[in-house]
């Protein structure tokens, strides 16, 4: 194992604190470890590097030339870490960057679109792109960041989060019902025209074909189905 592999952050952090405080006793009160533990870490670091980092005097500790070089490096790194942490915390509190959201055309236009204004006001520094399509974009290939779909993703590496429950129902235009009687039970569906996705199935939801299957199972002829892709 070479010397660089001994430069773990705990030893360097303790070294920097001692160098800044000028003594082990002054440093340990701030970094909350015992003086013996701090002394041991400094000794281990010096042995690993094969150099003396401090001059030991009656007035305390003073950095050697090599110690000053190491301290400046560690202090600079600490400053970069603090800057990065501040930036990351700011990003958590105030989202920024680019967010690509995909969902189906019908859900996006009826539910999502009216809410985009509120979302934009809440996160003004976030660049938003919405892809409305029945196509299933590959999130694992970064074609989109978030997908709102009816069902779970088949990709195991994707995180699924429940948003809401949607109830399915059978609906008919009032003019249509004036010309025929409303179905009261599944067997009545064989007398009705059924609008369905047919083979143009939005992914990944097979649930949207529930009424198609129900009508077929109750004797509705294929000629009674009107298939539409949206």
Report on the architecture of this protein:
This protein is of the alpha/beta class and 230 residues long. 41% of the residues lie in helices and 13% in strands. The protein has helices spanning 9-21, 24-31, 35-49, 65-93, 105-112, 116-122, 174-179, 210-217; strands spanning 54-57, 60-63, 97-103, 126-132, 146-148, 194-196, 225-227. A hairpin with a 2-residue loop joins strand 1 and strand 2. The mean pLDDT is 83.
Classify the secondary structure makeup into a structural class. alpha/beta
Helix content: 40-55%
- Give the ordered list of helices and strands: HHHEEHEHHEEHEHE
Low-confidence stretches: none
Arithmetic mean pLDDT:
83
* Biggest sheet layout: 3 strands, parallel
> Ends: how far apart?
64 Å
Number of strands: 7
How many helical stretches? 8
How large, in whole angstroms, is the Cα Rg? 33 Å
Biggest β-sheet: strands ordered side by side in the sheet: 4-3-5
Which term fits the overall shape? rod-shaped
Strand content: 5-15%
């Amino acid at each position: 194992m070479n010397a660089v592999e001994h430069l773990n952050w705990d030893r360097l952090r303790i070294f920097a604190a001692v160098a800044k405080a000028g003594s082990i006793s002054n440093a340990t009160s701030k970094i909350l470890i015992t003086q013996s533990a701090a002394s041991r870490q400094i000794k281990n670091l010096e042995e690993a590097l094969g150099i003396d980092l401090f001059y030991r005097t009656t007035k305390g500790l003073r950095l050697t030339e090599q110690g000053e070089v190491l301290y400046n490096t560690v202090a600079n790194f600490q400053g970069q870490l603090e800057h990065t942490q501040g930036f990351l915390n700011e990003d958590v509190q105030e989202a920024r960057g680019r967010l690509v959201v995909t969902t189906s055309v019908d859900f996006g236009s009826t539910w999502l679109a009216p809410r985009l204004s509120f979302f934009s006001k809440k996160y003004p520094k976030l660049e938003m792109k919405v892809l409305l399509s029945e196509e299933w974009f590959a999130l694992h290939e970064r074609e989109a960041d978030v997908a709102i779909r009816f069902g779970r993703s088949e990709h195991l590496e994707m995180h699924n989060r429940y948003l809401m429950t949607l109830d399915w129902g059978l609906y008919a235009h009032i003019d249509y019902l004036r010309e025929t009687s409303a179905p009261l039970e599944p067997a009545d569906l064989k007398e009705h025209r059924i609008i369905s996705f047919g083979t143009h199935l939005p992914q990944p939801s097979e649930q949207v074909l529930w009424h198609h299957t129900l009508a077929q199972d109750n004797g509705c002829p294929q000629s009674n189905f009107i298939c539409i892709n949206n």
